[in-house]
Each structure stands twice: as structure tokens, then as C-alpha cells.
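Duplicate of earlier report; Peptidase M14 domain-containing protein input re-posted below.
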Amino acid sequence: MPDYPAIEQRLYLLQRHLPEQLQLEQLLHQGARWLRCDTVLTVQHGGLPLPVQVIELGSQSRNAPVIGFFGGVHGVERIGSQVLLSWLHSLVQRLDWDEQMARRLERVRILFMPMINPGGIWQRTRSNPSGVDLMRNAPIDAIGKVPFLVGGHRISNRLPWYRGRRDAPMEPEAQAVIRVVRQRMLNAPFSLSVDCHSGFGRRDRLWCCYARSHQPIAHIAEVFTLKRLLERTYPNHHPYIIEPQSVNYTTHGDLWDYLYDGALTSHPHHMFLPFTLEMGSWLWVRKNPRQMFDFFGYFNPVIAHRQSRVLRQHLPLFDFLLAATDNWQNWIPLARQRPALAREAIRTWFTEQDQDG
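Output:
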């Protein structure tokens, strides 16, 4: 017999602290025909087991290109998880009637990991419940100086941006991301990831590696080509600033740097392009200064109509990136084109750094 008081208590606690989990469970039920879900980690927090889940849909062929969407690395930036759930909802609804989308998913695989840090989301903190910033937790150091504290430190887990103890294993949540990407994405001939964050500047930015170095990545020509492809395809699109993260600042321990460099060694003939969507939350604060009285308000829109706008305005970008993943062989530059494109990318990003406006 089900324990109804325990079920009701779980529903009450999740609705209060982690409503995104209830939304995800509803989507899994609605899309059960198409969605494949695995729990890759369980975090005990708030008296409940909180699952870290991976959802896949589309092709199961090893040769299919893969696009992965990640969110909730920083618990206070829960708008990232909400945007991904909005995108997943759209896909589930479209598969009921959209034959073109169904055919596309016969060729490409989509992966979602929308709540990597459920304990941090629950307690509305940047770090996980152990006080570690998961995006500073990989065992790599930046080249040169990084901004004090913000670039990652080992002083104390009472301070934000704490990397964890030196030589300690990576946090379980960070290890789960590493396993998922290595096992489910890097074997594909082409893979692309989007990690959703908020909190930097007044403009939405699409960052590529590196966070640890001002040097361009090996696939800078491909990143620059994708930037131009988006701008040509949607000349009036939502105005993203597309650039390497290091144009703004560098950090220690970035998970995507660690995964990208590892992919170059483990899968040299495949292509893995990790991106970070950094939603510019300063604009939300400027339009509603009262948000400054709540730390949560620095990273999330708190007015209903503004939240609804954010939940829908990035879906065209996700749809574009899905199409680009499906058709990657049609836009990837030829070997003879790469040197000129790399030089142009370096002139654009590393000698004419864009200022936040």
C-alpha cells in the first residue's frame, strides 16, 4: 500500500523548495512515449532523496550527432533549469503533431540534464550543499592570474566560488556531469552542449571555451562559423553576444574546459563544442531595482511577465542549435578554409574585445 502521508509530505516539500522537479516529473509522464530517463546520482537533502536525472530523446545510433542541454549547476540561477524545462515541454508537445521534428529526431539525439545541483537549487545557493562551486571544481588551473575569489579559490567553503580542497575528488554532481558527457556525447562524431546560467551583464551571451586561458581553442574556426551562421540565418534575432568566456574573465576549474581538453585527447577525430548561455540578469535588476533586496533576485526574473519572456525568448536559439547539430556536416568549414576563419576569429575576439552595453 502506498504511504499517502509520505507522498503528500514529499509533494509539499518539493512544491515549496524544488517545484522544477515536479514539473520535470509531469513532463516525463506526458512524454513517456519519446523520453528515456536515467537517474545518475541521488543527493540527500531536505529529508528527501533528490535525483540528478538525464533525459534523452531521438536517435540511439552511436553515429548520430548529439546536442546536450545542461542547467542548475549554480543553485541560485534556477532560471537556467526553468528555460530548459520550457524547451523540453515544447519538444514533448510538438512530437504529438510535428512529423518534421519526429524525422529530425531519427537522425539526432537530444540530451537534457536540467538540474545538476538539486541541493543547491533547494537551498538557493550558488554552491552545492557542501559549499563547493561546481563550475570551479575540475582539477585544472587557469593560465595566469584570475580575478580574486571570482576566479575560484580554496580559502573556505563559507565564501562563494570555493573550488574544494586541493587533491580532493570532484564533487559527486560534477563527476555525474563528467560521466554523462564522456559516455553519452563524446562518442558521437559531432556533439554540442549548452550550459544555462544567469548573472553576468545586461546582455545575453553565448560563451565558448576557454575559461582558463586567453588562448583560442582548437575549434575556434568552427565556433566562429556557427556565430556567422546564426547571424546570417536570423539577422533580427535576439541579440546574443557570442564570444569566448576569457574575453571577460578567466577562472580555475571550469568543467567544460576540462571536458573539452579531454575530448581532444580521447576522441581526436570527433568534434565537441561546449557553450555556456549566460543570461544577462543585470537587465532584470535595472528594470526592477527592488530585486536588489533579495540575493535570489540578482540571478532570476521575479516579475511574472518578465519570467515568461525569458522562458520563451531562448527557444529559437535552441531550435537553431538543434538544426545545426543535425546538419553539422553542411556548415563545418573545410580544412582549407579553417586557417583564414581562425585568423578572423582571433581578430574579432582577441584584439577587439566587446564591451558590455
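The first strand starts at residue 36 and ends at 45.

Merging into the original ticket.
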